[in-house]
Amino acid sequence: MKMLIGGSFVGEGLSTINVFNPATGEKVGTAPDGGENEAKAAIDEAYSAFKTWSKKTANERSKALMSWFRKIEEATEELAELMTKEQGKPLKEAKGEIGYANSFIEWYAEEGKRIYGETIPASAANKRIFVQRQAVGVVAAITPWNFPAAMITRKVAPALAAGCTVVVKPAEQTPLTALRLGELAIEAGIPSGVINIVTGDAKTIAEVWQEDSRVRKLTFTGSTEVGKILMEGASKTMKKISLELGGQAPFIVMDDADLDAAVSHFIASKYRNAGQTCVCANRIYVHEDVVDAFSEKAKAAVSELKVGNGLEEGVDLGPLIDEDAVKKVQEHIEDAKDKGAEVVYGGAEADGQFIGPTVLRGVTEEMKCMREETFGPLAPISTFKTEEEVIERANGTPFGLAAYLFTRDIGKAVRLSEELEFGIVGINDGLPSVPQAPFGGFKESGLGREGGHHGMDEFLEVKYISLAF
Ligand code: ADP
């Protein structure tokens, strides 16, 4: 496929990046290996398009976004299949992601009509104070491979609705879904230069974007390590930034929880995308009085999960993204076993990039799986005795993205949700992500929010106009 710069599909003559199916190792397609020239050309186009796109009415931008929404909706099957081929997730999850990705476009197409200002009482009779919010300018978006469509629309939809134009660099493992979304945007009539998608070396492209003062906002989803590099780079020209980084989500089951509900949410949260999401349950804390019952139910539920090529009917867990991802899961399992954890289900055996679900018990805080994000289908269960203890252990991480809490006691739900140092708390809910709510982290999980009106603010500057007459 080709890159999208200024409404044209380009990349002829450049070398290419091969995209492989993690389930089969087969080549799925190629993307151009763009560099400095393409990164700069994309900014030129976005900067020029900003002049007209930002002047359109909210209604005009909404109509353009809704026609993109409809194109994506019509192409759901095709996009989902492409995503499964390049990323590995089961087809049903890929379809779910296209719907989720598109829900951001629909929601922000409407929200763009509600970018309200303020009037403030002035300090003199002949003065007036107006506060206006206006598009920040050209936005650079850098996205990861685990949600090849949603991480793009969650950034691009609010940016466009606010009146910004974007330059996007998708992950090198999954550029094809992104490029197809770009083609659909052009077919939908999104004007040239409003969305530009550049593929190629991440560092080279990101450096051009960081250094160019025309880029006024950087939005990123990925590792905390790269997030810190980008934050430093953005400081050179004082860009606005939003960073969605790593997580280490605690999943807390109190002694009064509905265990059947807790287990079904545990399965959804832990094994979605084979455990490769930043909000996946990563540390399972179960009250000591219910740990036997929870572990038994978890084992029964996990044993029903089918591992295989995501294109096959009935598959629940696809392959991991690459061999290193498999190695990390194996290392965490072996480390926990060496330090005394008991295997409830599964184990470290892998078949190529396929590794089945594992549940461990008797896990303690010094094990790697409790300290680092596994990003794979490993569920380490650890027990606790008191509320104070579990809160301290849950908060004892540099990360603060999502936390889950299962209890039927409303007092505990309120108390604990307020104590948890996390940007998202799911109470009896393992799947809280929706377009209208703010998604984002505390501490080293990032800065800023995506989704809802908070997600729109990230692309707007506040202007105070003082009028004397
Ligand atoms: P993951 O571990 O999920 O691959 P990364 O943070 O490495 O997370 O990747 C997320 C995105 O950041 C990808 O698009 C990747 O190409 C990009 N990326 C990786 N390294 C850099 C870098 N040094 N500068 C800018 N972008 C980078």
UniProtKB/TrEMBL annotation:
Superkingdom of origin: Bacteria
Keywords: Oxidoreductase
GO biological-process terms attached to the record: aldehyde metabolic process; gamma-aminobutyric acid catabolic process
Active-site residues (renumbered): 244, 278
Sequence ranges assigned to domain Aldehyde dehydrogenase in this UniProt record: 15-465
GO molecular function: succinate-semialdehyde dehydrogenase (NAD+) activity
Family statement drawn from the similarity comment of this UniProt entry: Belongs to the aldehyde dehydrogenase family.
Xref: NCBIfam families: SSADH (TIGR01780)
Name by which UniProt lists this protein: Aldehyde dehydrogenase
Source organism per UniProt: Alkalihalophilus pseudofirmus (strain ATCC BAA-2126 / JCM 17055 / OF4) (Bacillus pseudofirmus)
